[in-house]
């Protein structure tokens, strides 16, 4: 019944307005004040979904959706979700699920090959990486790794000196991640971009900012470059930015597809 419900939704998805027409607070008026004390049949539950939930959806999968990231999942994608949910794999480590660990390793190397990354980024070259569920997860994980490696060199008491860099077009997840891993809010640099660079982050301005921070006693830690910003689809010049990062020992992360690869001193969760 659930599969049929989803199939029917896709069959008629273009009939729904892409943007929900409900008003804020609409659902509270439709649902009971407390959870049900007794179970209900699946037919009743699906009818409630149809009557109360579907009207409050923004239909991202609609062929008429042209905002943000349209059609974010394929039929193969949600069938795969059904399969993995059924298996309920918990991939803590290899013994918890050997197939999950080894499949992720193989797929990451496939992706690395597709991106023509150096062999040192692949498991076969003593590098490797992991698949993350979201951009936010990837940024937090890589920034935490960068933070710990840097603090092992300068002492954990110096966390207040660490600085994170991005452009004023970089997604807000970077600033959120920096707060989560303990970077002082005053040490977050949203470097201004201009029309002359098509709103891409300027390597020269970055270098000037980094040098100023070093002179002031700060420790440059992390740079996030973006391949297609959310607001204006700006593309930062990765090569020149990597040169600046390498010169000053800065970890660099690039945002775009949801994938994470790691190499000592250079983190690239392309997420």
Provide tags for this entry:
3-stranded antiparallel β-sheet, 4-stranded parallel β-sheet, 271 residues, 9 helices, disordered C terminus, alpha/beta, 12% strand, single chain
3D architecture notes:
- It is a single chain.
- By secondary structure, the chain is of the alpha/beta class.
- The protein has helices spanning 2-11, 26-30, 42-53, 75-87, 98-114, 135-154, 173-180, 203-215, 238-247; strands at residues 129-130, 162-167, 188-191, 219-226, 251-255, 260-263, 266-268.
- It has a 4-stranded parallel β-sheet, sandwiched between helices.
- Helix 6 (135-154) packs across helix 7 (173-180).
- The longest helix has 20 residues, at 135-154.
- The protein is globular and about 65 Å long.
- The chain starts with a helix and ends with a strand.
How is the topology of this model organized?
Elements: H1 2-11, H2 26-30, H3 42-53, H4 75-87, H5 98-114, E1 129-130, H6 135-154, E2 162-167, H7 173-180, E3 188-191, H8 203-215, E4 219-226, H9 238-247, E5 251-255, E6 260-263, E7 266-268
Parallel strand pairs: 2-3, 2-4, 4-5
Antiparallel strand pairs: 1-6, 6-7
Helix pairs in contact: 6-7
